[in-house]
Amino acid sequence: MAHRFSIREVARQAGVSDATVDRVLHSRPGVRPATIGLVRQAIADLEAQSTQLELSGRRFMIDVVVDAPARFHMAARRALEAELPLLRPAVFRARFHMRERWGSGSLVLQLDAIARRGSHGVLLKAPDTPEIAAAIQRLARAGIPVVTFVTDVPGSPRLAYVGMDNRAAGATAAYLMHSWLAGRHGSVAVTLSNGIFQGEEERETGFRSTMRALGGRREVHYLPASDGLDGTAYEVMRAALAEHQDLSGLYSPGGGNPGLARAWRESGHLPKVFIGHDLNPENALLLSDGTLSVVLHHNLQGDMHSACRALMHFHGALPGTWAPPSTPIDVITPYNMPAGPHR
Questions:
Q1: Under CATH, which number does the domain 1-48 receive?
Q2: Which end of the chain is more exposed for a tag (fewer CB within 10 A), N or C?
Q3: pLDDT above 90 for 72
Q4: 187-191: strand order across its sheet
Q5: 166-297 maps to which CATH number?
Q6: What is the pLDDT of residues 107-137, one digit of tens each?
Q7: pTM (2 d.p.)
């Protein structure tokens, strides 16, 4: 593991002791494989954030904790690492704690470990549960601010939420669905990744209330959660298509769109209107080939900027107080997709 960083730098990045890093670097016994992985990842993160180490200014070490599919892990990491060099006058470094499925209580244990170890702030994408809210309370008592992003934990003492107005996003999806299906028969399906994520619940609520307000009598089926994983989403959609043979529209507030699309193709047709969220590589491909009708997108790097700015205000690196505004909702079609790689 050749590298150019001091043992202390690696230890701080990994959240372990100097002695542990020394044992890993010299291949000495007595270190758990998971800890070896932490040290290796810390060195990789330091390499990715190397430009930050050369800057001068007030320094912050933050932790990014994410419960989401792997495709979102990479999007969040890329967005933050792209934003880090732009965060003047401060210098930020980040430790990442990301899993597709946190086991029962393990996400809380991770947040409690951060509270014990210390941090200048936590950027958190997590379910809205009493246990998570209580962990955020413990972080706040330890003087560690938490900024939720993409999905909120509103009953907690988090410092701020950054992201789109999810209820407005769901309402936008309903407006598009109602308009494009006008004069056509058929029901509509809505599938969530997980019902305990507040952001997706808000999108579903906005969709449901707006479809009702628009005066249509079109039946809307709310399908079981898929965890945002393609395989699960495929099975959920296949069962729905077998049960509701008049389905003509689909709103996907979460993930798993390749799996959803596969089930539709195998049924012999595609939805007349298919609305998804986030212009990731999978959705960009589905939009390009006409499977997705539209993607409701927001700038994740902008979320990271707002989150870090909120932390700078909290710590006095910027004067006064500041409340992050909602991230604008971009309606992306095949004809206005941004050029270049998608997150």
A1: 1.10.260.40
A2: N
A3: no
A4: 220-223, 187-191, 247-251, 273-277, 294-297, 330-332
A5: 3.40.50.2300
A6: 999 999 999 999 999 999 999 999 999 999 9
A7: 0.78
